[in-house]
Amino acid sequence: MCLAVPGRVLDIEERDGTRMANVDFGGVVKEVCLEYLPDLQVGEYAIVHVGFALQRLDEESARQTLELFTTLGMLQEEFGDPWELAAEAGGAPRPAEDQAAQEAQQ
Predict the structure, then answer these.
(1) Which residues contact 59 (CB under 8 A, 6 or more apart)?
(2) In which region does residue 84 sit, left (phi positive, over 0), alpha (psi from -120 to 50) or beta (all else)?
(3) What is the pLDDT of residues 56-97, one digit of tens each?
(4) Could you give the CA distance from residue 23 to residue 44 in angstroms, rounded to a whole number?
């Protein structure tokens, strides 16, 4: 699944003539292109889809949406480690579960 996720702009820089930003999605930071929102500023929120900021969003709406996505596990699905997600889908225990199981055996 590919979501449009709200994120907060942490910093902005121009790279090869393109406005780029580091954006925080509830603890996960990704690089995002700001060309569709040229006046977006540090500290503001935007809805981001496949690496492009598409629409400005107010802070309260962004926080509510991030909380809902977190509750539903959608942020982990969208931003989680692809190797870990594939292993989990194949029935392998998560690394934390491996460690807990090893400690329980000792």
Answers:
(1) 8, 45
(2) alpha
(3) 999 999 989 888 877 877 766 666 555 565 666 677 666 665
(4) 10
